[in-house]
Amino acid sequence: MSLQSTASKDNKRRKIVDSEGRSMIASVYHFLKEEYDFSKLFAEPNCDLSHLQNISQRTAEATGVSCKTVLRILKEEKEMPSTSSKFPSPLKRKKRGSKIEIDNFTAEVVRSTIQNFHVHNEIPTLAKLKTVVNEKIGFNCCIETLRKFLLKLGYKWRKTETNRKVLTERHDVQMGRLKYLKKISEYRSQGRPIVYNETNNFLSTGTRFIFAYAGTKDGFIENATLIYKARSIAGDHNSNNMSNNDYIKWLNEKLLPNVPERSVIVLVNASYYKKRAEKPPTPATKKADMQQWLRDKGVPFEESLLKLELYDLIKKQINQNITYEIDELIESKGFDVLRLPPYHPELNAVENIWGIVKKYIALNSNEQMVTDAERLINESFNKINSVTWQNTCSHIEEIEKAYLKYFDLDFEFAIDLQDDSDESESESDNYISDSN
């Protein structure tokens, strides 16, 4: 690793990590992260893996930079257009994006940490939450980033009776989670196979590959995995190029013919899963058609109502009568559909599986030819066996049980913002390593 030394205004020695050094630090982090993930999945019961858990700190110790530098490098890596892209010169200033991504592992840790504070009769502040989460998983973000992350998880602002400012979970987020947990618990008690499915994409050597796959606690659904080259590489690394029509074709030809009987198909709330089976009336719809729509839905109305009044009735009914094209297709084949609650990636088993696939590809790819990239992608899926799926699904069930346990408690999961009002943090645009 090549390092250039420079002195700060306060004479504290710092290191500017060049592009080659940043690439090496990122590789070390991914290696240690993969080591921890696989150890966790295949560990014996009661095996202590705490010494492997803080990946950022271990990376910092191994490479001689600070945790803050490691996290800045990882953030830059996420924003690169593909895994074959190189880190730019460290002195080039880069515009910061406002997008905050929620990964399932971090979402689970943050949510469970907030719960643990309240179970022990303590209302956390953002500063306390930041400290604990950082100690657990090395999530060393600034206060403002953590605040935005919580809003992405479904929290909202509220003032208490004493005029203190707090973040609390939105009621609709809580209800969505509760309904999902009750329903999936019912299906599990009936011994129904729970099928998780997902579509993802991966950009390699200028070619974007699309993945569609599914699995249960027993492993991948046989003959259902689909990998193909996208028609376009437009969009960022996290966009999804599978259209609604492509997904329906995959369901009909690959997934539904191969899933076990009485299966429950778990869907995420992505746009390509949410094409409505029928288009609801709009303000431009004819009055007679509005009246017929209300009759079809069994909604009583007076014939004398004006068109504006009819549409007001329709608006109140739309969200209660939503049917999706994909849901109707799956149900027509004799299966049930269960949609994941918004803001809860940690309840989706395929998020964990996809994380393992991405890590394997990232650790083994080296600007290969497209044919080599295809081979590597297939290898990554073949590395995941029934034991991995079993451990992943068992972990998801434990999360579900933990969440259900707290719904009858007499408090809401709030975060006190008052003590954090004067705290401000900033990060350097350049990748300057703080001395340890």
TrEMBL record:
Superkingdom of origin organism: Eukaryota
Molecular function via GO: nucleic acid binding
InterPro entries named in the record: RNaseH_sf, Tc1-like_DDE_dom
Residue stretches in coiled coil: none
Start and end residues of each Tc1-like transposase DDE domain: 240-363
Pfam name, any one: DDE_3
Entry protein name: Uncharacterized protein LOC112042931
Source species: Bicyclus anynana
Gene symbol of the encoding locus: LOC112042931
